[in-house]
Amino acid sequence: MRAIVIGAGIGGLAAALSLRRGGHEVVLVEQTPRFTEFGAGIQLAPNATRVLRRLGRLEAVAEQAAPRGELSFRSWSNGAEICGYTLGREVDDVFGAPYLQLHRADLQQALAAAVPGGSVLLDTEVVGIDQDDKSAAVTTASGERLTGDLVVAADGIRSAARQWLFGADEAVFSKTAAYRALLPTAAVADLDLPDTGIWLGPGRHFVHYWLRRGELLNVVAVFGTETAQESWTALAEPGEPLRAFEGWDARVVRVLERAGRMYRWGIYTRAPLARWNLGRVALLGDSAHAMVPFQAQGAAQAIVDADVLGDCLTGADADDVPEALERYVRRRLATATSMQARSASAGEEFHLPDGPEAEARNARMAAHATEHRFLPVAAAWVADGS
């Protein structure tokens, strides 16, 4: 069959590879003129890396990842450890796939390298989708009509396809923003940072981990704000993150001082849908289930979507497409919707004020780490399945 995939982000690229693995022709349509480096760090639990292995891309991705060490949850004020985990070989041994941390652009490039260039249409905006009983098609801004047996819309949190299929609904601002920076290793070598640190405090949290074989430190400071655009390139006000983390452990403050001007990414979500498909058209990734990033599962859920979609369409013919897409949604919707809720809940837990609730959270986390030393609480429940 012939599938048209809208969007060449992580979800769209993974969908293209999964569908090609199932024997189908794929046309990948992307509105930007080229694959460019954007974003910063990304964490992939075994539910995602297991899919990358099936797609033949795990080795290429792992080559770009940071060395795997320890994850430490810390208290905001003095850096005391709440609990710790290993992200190393024990994860592979238990779940059959690694936990990886890498640059988002490196993941995208590793996926894009496996998609034949002739099947990718860059600088091509989709302005409409239509379908009938036998086929589905997209119309581009230039007026070209591309026809296939199905359309997969992986067009992100601002998905136009979602609106065309199910009517207008707006992305929802979480009233939080992530302030991001990348620092060279030498800039923080004297700070005695944990390999991966998540520092929890009232109304905010701070995350850091290594990228690109340990050459860069990815820094993310998350706190509330009344307004912030959903953008990888918007700059924060000078000194804004540093003021927000005044009084925190000295290591956090030093990192923010050395980060200088940071990028501000407003965190938006989409309301859960009762269905992601209509006839021969289906949503995938953020277009279906955009979530806050506090369980590090946004991209992973899109990758798992792609895997299940490819599996449901393997061996199918054109007449089978609507039912195959129904199976895809039945297998994925409940899990992804639950992850949306879990991610939101994690953000609330991370930001508890000092006092009995925070103390109870810390005790729960410490107990979990004692039982599950090999995998952080944020990923434990998804590591052994989709």
SSE layout and pairings?
Blueprint: E1 2-6, H1 10-21, E2 25-29, E3 41-44, H2 46-54, H3 58-62, E4 70-75, E5 81-86, H4 89-95, E6 100-103, H5 104-112, E7 120-121, E8 126-131, E9 136-140, E10 145-148, E11 150-153, H6 160-166, E12 172-184, E13 196-201, E14 204-211, E15 216-224, H7 240-244, H8 250-259, E16 263-269, E17 277-278, E18 281-283, H9 286-289, H10 298-313, H11 321-350, H12 356-371, H13 377-380
Parallel strand pairs: 1-2, 1-11, 2-7, 4-13, 11-18
Antiparallel strand pairs: 3-6, 4-5, 8-9, 9-10, 12-15, 12-16, 13-14, 14-15, 17-18
Helix pairs in contact: 1-5, 1-10, 2-10, 10-11
Verbal overview:
The structure is a single chain. The chain is α/β, with parallel strands linked by helices. The protein has two domains: 2-34 and 122-170 and 270-341, FAD/NAD(P)-binding domain (3-Layer(bba) Sandwich); 66-99 and 173-269 and 352-386, D-Amino Acid Oxidase, Chain A, domain 2, CATH 3.30.9. 35% of the residues lie in helices and 26% in strands. It has 13 helices and 18 strands. Strands 5-4-13-14-15-12-16 form a seven-stranded mixed sheet. A six-stranded mixed sheet has the order 7-2-1-11-18-17, sandwiched between helices. The chain is globular, with a radius of gyration of 21 Å. The model has no long low-confidence stretch (mean pLDDT 93).
